[in-house]
Amino acid sequence: MAVTIKDIAAAVGVSRGTVDRVINHRGGVSEEVAARVEQAVEEMGYFPNRAGRILAARKKPVTIGCLLPSDKITFFHDVIRGFFRAERELSDFGVSLRLKEVRGYDPEIHLAALRELLAENVSALCVATIETPEITALLNQTAAEGVPVAAINIDLPHVNRLFYIGSNYLAGGRTAGGLLSLMAKGPVSLFVVAGSSNIHSHHLRIEGFAQVMKEKETAYTLVDVQVTQDDSEVAYEATKRVLQEHPEINYIYITTSGSAPGVCRALEELERKKRVTVIAFDDNKENKRLMKEGSIDVLLCQESFRQGYDAINHLFYYLVDGTVPKAEYFTHTVIKIGENL
């Protein structure tokens, strides 16, 4: 059931008129109350029901081009579910999506997919992509020409994006570091499995992790870092080789979800599963299975469905009536272990 102004008012403890003034930017509300209302609006998923009236006047279809590196990465399945739930709900108002799915983070493949979407004269872009000079230039040119660009799941700090929705990667890394500090008993020999060197967000998960380990004065030896392009097969080969070379490894930190199956496969084959603690990201179907089997000890999750669903809604309302979204929407970092999966 859709969230209403009455629901927001009840949750915050204010009148419906106050909520209406905040969401329509009419003023007359204290900063403290306005902040509480805005937080409830975001957390409860409220979107004003203005679409029918606005599009009846405009009578122009809205086509949103989406790009995800979702081929072989099951994390993105829930993002896509969110995309198409929003499309179904907004279809009566002329909204349709064009989804391009690519594998990995090859710059040329991403660039070609973006050009294909733009060739379809889309109204907006919603992309999880990488930052290279060519891609950044294309996206900035696109935004300058009046086609808004939303960054989903992977932030694009050098792009003039309309907004970013996804994980706070630095906070996620800090959470992982805090968890390892709590779990560590005796010497820590750490192996880090990273995603892509072209993605700023992936660096932040390592940076946040290192920050907390230093702050908490948790001693550890960083044995190796392997960049796997979020590819399970690459992760498998790298993990198997590193574990064979370094039998002392007792903790593995996986910064992206696509690498986890390969890492766990190597642990299983080398019979190291029970001797290595694994911290990974995202509760997609495959990672849940691996956790139930005892291959993953902790999953840090990031509300993937919400990323897809909210991104399309924010773009829609911006396109049809100029409702400017916030610059950033951080999803919650949710800690899961076997007992609360």
From TrEMBL:
Transmembrane segments: none
Name assigned to this protein: Transcriptional regulator, LacI family
Gene3D superfamilies on file: 3.40.50.2300, lambda repressor-like DNA-binding domains
Alphabetical list of InterPro entries matching this protein: HTH_LacI, Lambda_DNA-bd_dom_sf, Peripla_BP_I, SBP_2_dom
Pfam families xrefs: LacI, Peripla_BP_4
Superkingdom classification of source: Bacteria
All residue ranges annotated as the HTH lacI-type domain in the record: 3-57
